[in-house]
Amino acid sequence: MTQPELHRNDREAPGAALRGLRADLTAAALAVLLFAAAAVTGTWIERTRGVLHVDWPPLYASWLPHTGPGTVPALALAAAVAACGPAAARALPWRALVGAAWAVSALWIAALALVDGWRRGIADRLLSPHEYLSSVHRFEDAGAALSTFTRHILIGQPDNWPTHVAGHPPGAVLTFVALDRIGLGGGAWAGLWCILAGGSAAAAVLVAMRALGAEGAARRAAPFLVLLPAAVWAGVSADGYFAAVTAWGLALLAVGASPGARAPRSTALAAGLLLGWAVYLSYGLVLAAVPALAVLLCARNARPLPYALAGALVVAAAFTAAGFHWWEGYRLLVERYYQGVAAVRPYAYWVWANLAVACLAVGPATAAGLRRALTGAPAAAGGLLRAPSREASTTVLLVAAGLGAIAVATLSGMSKGETERIWLPFVLWLVPAAALLPDRHHRGWLAAQGATALLVNHLLLTGW
Q1: 3-state helix, strand, coil in the chain (%, to 5)
Q2: Which of 49, 225, 365, 386 fits a 20 to 30 Å CA distance from 103?
């Protein structure tokens, strides 16, 4: 595949380029206005009716301007990525770029978390009684805990699980049980695990894009994947780890579907194992099927599908044999969901306020890139009928898949708030839209991305 079409916007006539920039800025401004509308409307609803159950609508956060030990490193990283990221992404050898994306993304997540301090930002974040670590001791006999897991989901049942354990399949808590068993128990190790795993998600997206023939777009998107405002909620949140597992599953699926794959069957099987594991980390990750389909469409290759399905079925069979039935767990989760604040949180507000939160999480550059992606969607759809798929078309289709998963999630009514962390596995796939922005504007857009994350983390005390 060639890269000229990705650089077409850099060769536009001055008038067309100016119109494009104005349209990009308008799209970013509209994203800001959507978030402002959600904040103003949400504040009014919460003050008059008290039904949102968030302190700073639409975010699960509190107003608390502050600095911390992560402030200077975060500022330095943001400045370095904005100034040098685009050039480095173009020049680095591929493997070095993937490794650098992982490392810098993890550092960015950690620096933002440390704005809240070591204990409040990392070591104690997962020690809340609502989190997974509070239930690790109940898995001394993991087999017995799994076979009786669904008995403790509903409020009112004896020894009902805390919120996050009840709200997820047991794969989530089993991850922290496994860390504890190998001597990495406690909040600090759990937090570091989530940061290191969450940082790898950026690298996974790059691997997926290159496998689908979009290396040029991947290199252009790399600094934006690193300097993602959603990193505020990846550190420290288990959802950052969930996002990484899903992203690597999709990356392996892309590798297995790519022309000339060395071991396509085993790679697809590994992809299925990871995607199957993701579904047992979070019920909502069944929606990873949407970007998975997009990957196969971009590759024009359905041959990996049976092997991926086999891998996912291995995970499902293992949990079922251990006594946990996914569908029963999901049915009970829905009931538990409406035993809590979801029963009063208004769908009419959250169905669009969630999208405002997503705009904040992906940042203004992605919002501008989404405008270009939506404009190019008809051509991308038509590109499916031609071979090989063009780079821009591949980027647009992956972004469209992320949007599709988010649309289903918000329409389902099972995402009433707190989507700044819950949707991390999906918003990640919107970021490649920034690759569609003209190169000459990348530094400015990256500065806006970094500023968004820094403002959120320094003005608010986020709940995740």
Answers
A1: 75, 0, 25
A2: 365
Tokens of 63: 């107003």
Q: Which one, of 417, 429, 363, lies nearest residue 227 by Cα?
A: 363
How many other CB atoms are there within 10 angstroms of residue 19's CB atom?
A: 12
CA dihedral over 270, 271, 275, 278, signed as positive or negative: positive
What is the pLDDT at residue 18?
87
What's the pLDDT tens digit per position in 188-212? 999 999 999 999 999 999 999 999 9
How is residue 86 written in tokens?
């685009």
Predicted local confidence at residue 390, as pLDDT = 72
Q: What is the pLDDT of residues 300-332, one digit of tens each?
A: 999 999 999 999 999 999 999 999 999 999 999
Handedness of CA 331, 334, 335, 336 (dihedral sign): positive
pLDDT at 139 over 70: yes
- CA–centroid distance for 282 within its chain: 13
Rounded Cα–Cα distance for residues 86 and 259 (Å): 28
Q: What gap in Å lies between CA 210 and CA 338, rounded to an integer?
A: 42
Token pair 């918000």 is found at: 410
Q: Which helix (H) or strand (E) holds 425?
A: helix 424-427
Whether the bond into 341 is cis, omega within 30 of 0? no
Q: Is the peptide bond before 158 cis (omega within 30 degrees of 0)?
A: no
Q: Which of 90, 168, 91, 165 is nearest to 134 (CA)?
A: 165
- Cβ atoms of 90 and 217 within 8 Å: the answer is no
Beta bridge partners of 61: 462
Report residue 126 as tokens: 């997962």
Q: How far apart are CA 141 and CA 280, in angstroms?
A: 19
Q: Which of 164, 135, 154, 73 has its CA nearest to residue 110?
A: 73
Residues β-bridged to residue 59: 56
Contacts of 434 (CB under 8 A, 6+ apart): 220, 221, 224, 365, 366, 368, 369, 442, 445
The Cα 283–Cα 414 span in angstroms is 10
Please give the span between the terminal C-alpha atoms of the chain, in angstroms, as a whole number: 41
Q: pTM of the predicted model, to two decimals?
A: 0.95
Q: pLDDT value at position 402?
A: 97
